[in-house]
Amino acid sequence: MTRGKFEQMIQPIYISISNMLSGDIEGGKSAALRIVRECLENGLCDEELRGQLLSLIDNFLMFAKGERSYENLLNYLKSSFYTYRKDLHGLLLLLVREICDERAVGMMKKWASDREPSVRIGSIKCLLKLYEEGKLGLDQLEEFMTDPSPKVREALVSSLQRYCSTNKAEVRSFLSRMLAIERRSSIRTKIITALSETIEEKKHKEKRKGWIRRLFRGR
User: Fold this and answer.
1) What is the pLDDT of residues 143-177, one digit of tens each?
2) 195, part of any domain
3) Is the full-model pTM beyond 0.85?
4) What is the three-class DSSP state of 125?
């Protein structure tokens, strides 16, 4: 099995499951099962991975049909980070974010102190989605600044980087505070890059505004 090629299957499977959750239960199910079948036929999945994917699809199918509770599904996803192959962690993270809503806040607080780094990253993904929707503040993610795992801290910076382009002052402040305490050079570089992009974007906007003002003055 070629891991790099299997990663190409993650997005299509995620979209199929997302369609199931959006109401197209049979269509999403059929598409997901077809992708898993092709994955095995093309040598991108082995039997173990196929079985885990089928279990994942089945659990989301039960949830979509109302046969599994929200809390139960989140607990299933959490345990999957321990029992499923790491090849599936990217897909699991996408699905955690997909189903995340305000009902998950209490559980995400518990996930934040879980011993498995991928579970803590799942908490970051969910809490940031709720931040994006204006349902909680960025302060809810402060504990991840000093997470013992560089993998988790790097995921935090990568997830926040997308908000820098929106010129959010609170995100810049958050990253600046993280930079002051971060000691790992690769993560510091990532933070500095994110902050630099924000500054460059701001300069670009100011130049564009100046150009528009000059354009109208010339008329």
Assistant:
1) 999 999 999 999 999 999 888 766 578 999 999 99
2) no
3) yes
4) helix
Q: Comparing C-alpha atoms, which of 193, 150, 149 is closest to residue 172?
A: 193
Instruction: Locate 173 and state its tokens.
Output: 């402040």
Matching residue, tokens 């505070």: 177
List the structure tokens of 51: 């079985």
d(CA 102, CA 46): 37
Please tell me the total count of domains within the chain. 1
- Asked if residue 153 lies in contact with residue 182, where contact means CB atoms within 8 angstroms, the answer is yes
SS3 38: helix
Q: What is the pLDDT of residues 197-206, one digit of tens each?
A: 765 555 544 4
For residue 39, give the nearest of 21, 24, 27, 51 by alpha carbon.
Answer: 51
Whether 36 contacts 49, CB under 8 Å? no
**CA-closest candidate to residue 68, choices 77, 81, 59:** 59
Q: Domain containing 40: what range? A: 1-99
Assess if residue 218 is contained within a domain. Answer: no
Sign of torsion over alpha carbons 119, 73, 105, 19? positive
Q: For residue 93, tell me if it sits in a domain.
A: yes
Is 9 domain-assigned?
yes
Residue with tokens 């997830």: 159
Distance CA 211, CA 25 (A): 51
> What is residue 70's DSSP assignment?
H
